[in-house]
Amino acid sequence: MSTPNAHVRRGGQVVTIPSSELVVGDIVLLEAGDVVPADLRLLESANLKSEESALTGESVPVEKQTAPLVGDDIGIGDRTNMAFMNSNITYGRGVGVVAATGMQTEVGRIAGMLNAAQETTTPLSENLKALGKTLTIMILVIAAFVFAVGVWRGAETLPEMFLTAISLAVAAIPEGLPAIVTVILALGTQKLAKRNSLVRKLPAVETLGSTEIIASDKTGTLTQNKMTVEKVYYDGQLHDAKEGVQSANPLLRIMNFSNDTKMQDDGQLLGDPTETALVAYGQTQNFDLKAELKAEPRVARCRSIPNAS
To answer: Is residue 72 annotated as a catalytic residue, yes or no?
Structure first.
C-alpha cells in the first residue's frame, strides 16, 4: 500500500508504473511532490531539492546536482548527485537512472540492519525475572519446611502432607503479577496518548518513565518544519500579514506563479517550506491558484543560473 508510482521513460514514452516494477537502468522522471521510488544517479537537475531526513536526520531539503563526486568514502548526506529511495522531492525537477532497488538501496540496508538486530530485555523484565527466581526459591523452601514438619508430627500421612505442600506452593505463586504489570503499562500508554504520544511497545512506557534528559534536534522534531508569512512588503512599505492584500495586487500573482508547490486533492500543500508558505498565504487572501493557472497555464521553466545565490 505504501509503494509509490514512478514516472519512467521506456521505449521513448513516459509511463507510470509501480516502483516495485523498477529495474536497474530505468530512467525515472522526478518533480516536486514525488516520492523517490529507488536509489537514482541523477542525470538532469533543474533546481532539484530532496528532503532526506529519514536517512540523514536533517530536515532541510538537500540541493541536488549532476556532477561526479571526488572521493572513495562519501557519506549519504554529501552524495548530492544521488536521489535516495523514500525521500521526498520538495522543489524542482530532475531525471535519474536507477542504481539500486529494494533491499539494495540505502533504506533497504537500514531495514536489513533492523531485522538483524537482537532484542534486548528492559530493566523491568530483568527485575520481574529476578523476582520470579526469588519467589520460587522461597516457595520451595517453605513448602519443604511444611512437609517436613507435618511428617515429623505424624498427624497426617505422607501422601496427604505431600499434596498439602504442593497446594501451598501453587497458592503462593503470584499468578496475577504479569496481568497487573500489563495493566499498569497500558494505563501509562493511555496517559501518553492524551499527550499526543504513541507507544508501539508496552515496555517503552518504562523507558520513558525513567528518562531524565532528552537531547533532540529542534527543526522537524520539536517543531512542524513549517513556515508562515508574517510580514509583506509592497507599495514601498512593510505591512503586517494580518492586514491582508488586495486581490488585484500583483504581489499575490508573483508569489503564487513563481512557485512549484503542488496542491493535493485533500488541500495539503507539497513542496519547499518557503513556497508552500507563500501559497498558503495566498489562500488566506482568497487567491484561487488553480483557477488562475487554468486561465494562464505555465508554458516554460527556467533552469538554474550557475553561481547564483
So the answer is: no
